[in-house]
């Protein structure tokens, strides 16, 4: 009898310990993850991280499209300019979001305010799509006709995989 109780207790304890060890927090909200409002797999885009991503993107573009040094410099300047322009808009959106959250959590946000906030977000998304197309147009202006054809082919074929994520990462 005692043996059964001991075995049952040890088994239940082992199962609970395993379950706790395997538990993973999901989602991203302030206080979840590394304490800065981002979960462990999500980081705020810093200038250093942007530089690293831009260098990786330029290396891929240079290899695939056979870019000259001058073209690389021009495209790098374009990427930096667009990133800096977006930073101001991101900061503005962050301030608005931080202002909305307390009101939404407390239930004080009225329908009119909510609708105006949602319209603002929709406009922001539309602006981002337009900016992306403008960047693509500016990059294409730097490329030769052969490079443009190659980039368009890559964009068409690779853009369809993974919900179009490759084309976004590739920057064209």
From TrEMBL:
Its main location: periplasm. GO terms for molecular function: unfolded protein binding. It is found in: Periplasm. Residues 1-23 form the signal peptide. GO terms for cellular component: outer membrane-bounded periplasmic space. Keywords: Periplasm, Signal. Residues 93-113 are annotated as: Disordered. Transmembrane segments: none annotated. PANTHER family: PERIPLASMIC CHAPERONE SPY. Belongs to the CpxP/Spy family. This is LTXXQ motif family protein. It comes from Malonomonas rubra DSM 5091. The lineage of its organism: Bacteria, Pseudomonadati, Thermodesulfobacteriota, Desulfuromonadia, Desulfuromonadales.
């Amino acid at each position: 009898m005692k043996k059964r109780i001991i075995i049952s207790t040890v088994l239940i304890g082992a199962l609970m310990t395993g379950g706790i060890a395997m538990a993973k927090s999901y989602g991203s909200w302030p206080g979840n993850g590394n304490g800065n409002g981002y979960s462990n797999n999500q980081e705020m885009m810093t200038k250093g991280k942007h530089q690293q991503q831009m260098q990786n993107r330029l290396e891929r573009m240079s290899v695939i499209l056979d870019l000259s040094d001058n073209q690389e410099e021009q495209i790098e300047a374009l990427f930096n300019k667009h990133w800096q322009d977006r930073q101001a808009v991101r900061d503005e959106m962050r301030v608005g979001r931080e202002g909305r959250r307390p009101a939404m959590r407390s239930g004080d946000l009225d329908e009119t305010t909510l609708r105006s906030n949602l319209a603002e977000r929709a406009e922001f998304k539309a602006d981002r799509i337009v900016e992306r197309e403008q960047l693509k147009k500016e990059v294409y202006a730097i490329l030769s006709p052969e490079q443009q054809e190659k980039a368009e082919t890559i964009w068409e074929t690779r853009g369809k995989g993974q919900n179009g994520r490759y084309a976004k990462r590739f920057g064209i």
